[in-house]
Amino acid sequence: MDDRVGPSDEQQWIDEFEAAAKRPLRLRVRYAFIKTYRPVLDDEPFRAFDTMEDYRRWCETNLPDWLGYGRV
Amino acid sequence: MAAFEYAQAEEIRDAFSSHGVRYLFIGKSGAILLGFPDTTQDVVLFVERGQENGEALVSAIRELGFALSPKQAAEIVSGKDFIQLKNGPFDLDLVFAPDGIERFADAWSRHVDVEGFPVCHPDDIIASKAATNRVKDRESLPRLRSFRDNWVRNRP
Q1: Reported ipTM exceeds the 0.90 cut
Q2: Can you give the pTM of this predicted structure?
Q3: Are the beta carbons of A35 and B2 separated by less than 8 Å?
Q4: Domain of A29?
């Protein structure tokens, strides 16, 4: 995956960071946290994994690819 | 269930403080507290592993309204690497061994206090996301690294 960004993207990001820094924390949190249903992931009230590798493998095996939890 | 709210972040901070839980906000939720303008629905806490801290953690999250069976509470106290809680007033992920960070004490020594919220340093948030090598993290890393550079430049 190509991680390079152009100077115009970078400047736009910096503008966004500086605008966000002017907002109170309470407002930043209100804008940032969203809730949408994620199939499978949101279907159990509790899951525990012995290791992070177990968790990563479970995600790759059980979650739809489009959720983005698979490894590159 | 509605989206996570600032008042709930305060409830975490206050309950964890009153029970003496050692923890840090990590992941994108931590970055957001530091000022990163982005969206997420995951609240992720990096918790120090240990019997005493685990018991304090269980008490705190029960106080927040999470319904834990004795078996689930025991799994939290034992410090399993990763735990997802969706049985309370908001979704909460507990991570005891995040990828890319060797020890809790190391992250704690670098942590940032944001209005009373203990948050991982952006370098640790980036290290953990880079180490996971997930598609969704790889996509967000360039912007997160740019945020980190800007944050360091402007930090008082």
Answers
A1: yes
A2: 0.95
A3: yes
A4: 7-67
